[in-house]
Design brief:
alpha/beta; five-stranded mixed beta sheet; 6 helices; 5 strands; 41% helix; globular
């Protein structure tokens, strides 16, 4: 059974990976590990540790990858998945990415969820939930809003603890650094 046939099935039986429509595939797990590497690189560069990879769902070919660059580039759109989606569209020469999967270590925010819908991304796989800005399931459900013209399949919680620990460690270190500056004045 091809991946396309599996996604079009109503019962979710069979197919790749874990055997259920809402489960990550082995390719998802492999590339989420890469997204986590990108997140670690972002953290080392002083960026919020978020990484993203976009791949063609059927072939598994990686089209783009990115990490957050918001601080370095002073760009409010410097989110990992935003950059990776833009680069993937350029790589395929089309703004429609319905044949693609976006993997990201943190649940997309409203800006990125809007881009996912507008790019017609087929699948979104994310790591940690974001109770303050998550727009797939936690705070908003932009990717599942029936008023919009596209709704991707969303699988959350993939390697969530590792993703969340990277974020917790980054912000803990940032708070300690800021406390040290205040105490030394």
């Amino acid at each position: 059974m091809s991946l396309r046939d599996w996604f079009n099935r109503k019962d979710g039986a069979g197919g790749p990976g874990e055997g259920e429509l809402g489960s990550p595939t082995p390719k998802d797990l492999e590339l989420m590990a890469r997204a986590l590497e990108l997140a670690r690189e972002a953290s080392a560069a002083g960026e919020t540790p978020v990484g993203a990879v976009v791949y063609e769902t059927e072939s598994g070919r990686v089209l783009a990858e990115a990490a957050n660059t918001r601080e370095r580039e002073r760009d409010p759109a410097g989110h990992a998945e935003f950059l990776a989606i833009r680069d993937a569209a350029a790589a395929v020469g089309d703004w429609r990415l319905n044949h693609c999967t976006v993997l990201v270590t943190l649940e997309p925010c409203p800006m990125c969820a809007g881009m996912i819908v507008n790019a017609r991304v087929g699948r979104v796989v994310y790591g940690a939930r974001d109770p303050k800005a998550g727009a797939c399931e936690s705070l908003y459900k932009i990717t599942d809003d029936p008023r919009l013209n596209h709704r991707p399949q969303v699988i959350g919680g993939v390697m969530a603890e590792e993703s969340a620990e990277l974020l917790r460690g980054f912000f803990r270190s940032l708070r300690e650094r800021n406390r040290g500056r205040k105490g030394g004045d």
